[in-house]
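TA notes, week 10

Several of you asked for a full example with nothing omitted. So below is the full record: structure tokens for the whole chain, then the designed sequence directly under it. When grading your own attempts, check the secondary structure regions first.
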């Protein structure tokens, strides 16, 4: 039975789950969630009432949350690229960086995007200003960290990089990352074939980006 992934090709958290699948050439069927595929939407809604994607289905197994999907793939369908190091201390650091990218980059960037989607009378400039200030704080911390690393945790591409790629891709669109090690790391991520493939999948949908997608990347 082939793995199924429910998601959307322009969704940052869907990219986070697509990257490890592409990284290891893991066979899967993409169940795109859009008005052209109502069956996918109906099955997704039945399977996960919270309705946050991605969602992975593998026979009788159903896995929500992009991080858990990557943990599942690494444990049940391992490939050449391992996303969780065997060493417990390194694994803890990978999981910590994964949380940092999700909570302090991806989710903060999403607050700015969500504000752009609101009608004019419900926009909140204070929320946007505070979100951008929080991005500045985490950019500075990550910039310092990336001075000495190729990937988020040392020399190997891991779960943390799967989180970093969509986070930094969209964060830079929302609030540009200053030149330096963090911006260089973003460029390294975008040059990685698995990440480039996820980015390419979203190209036809760039007109949907509410802040107007920049003409780059
Ligand atoms: N914590 C979830 C977040 C997933 C998430 O926020 N996905 C967005 C798409 S990028 C979504 O489902 N948006 C639809 C909605 O909120 O209704 C994860 O890590 O998978």
């Amino acid at each position: 039975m082939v793995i199924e992934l429910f998601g959307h090709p322009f969704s940052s958290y869907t990219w986070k789950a697509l990257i490890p699948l592409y990284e290891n050439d893991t066979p899967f069927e993409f169940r795109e969630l859009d008005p052209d595929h109502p069956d996918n939407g109906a099955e997704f809604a039945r399977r996960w009432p919270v309705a946050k994607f991605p969602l992975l289905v593998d026979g009788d197994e159903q896995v929500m949350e992009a991080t858990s999907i990557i943990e599942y793939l690494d444990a049940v369908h391992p490939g050449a690229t391992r996303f969780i190091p065997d060493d417990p201390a390194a694994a803890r650091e990978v999981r910590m960086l994964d949380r940092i990218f999700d909570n302090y980059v991806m989710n903060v960037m999403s607050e700015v995007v969500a504000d752009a989607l609101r009608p004019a009378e419900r926009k909140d400039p204070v929320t946007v200003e505070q979100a951008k200030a929080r991005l500045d704080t985490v950019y500075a911390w990550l910039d310092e960290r990336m001075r000495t690393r190729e990937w988020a945790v040392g020399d190997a591409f891991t779960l943390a990089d799967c989180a970093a790629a969509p986070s930094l891709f969209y964060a830079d669109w929302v609030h540009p990352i200053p030149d330096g090690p963090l911006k260089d790391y973003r460029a390294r991520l975008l040059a990685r074939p698995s990440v480039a493939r996820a980015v390419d999948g979203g190209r036809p949908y760039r007109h949907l980006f509410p802040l107007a997608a920049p003409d780059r990347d």
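The helical segments are 12-23, 38-47, 66-76, 88-117, 125-146, 159-174, 181-191, 193-202. Use that as a sanity check on your answer.
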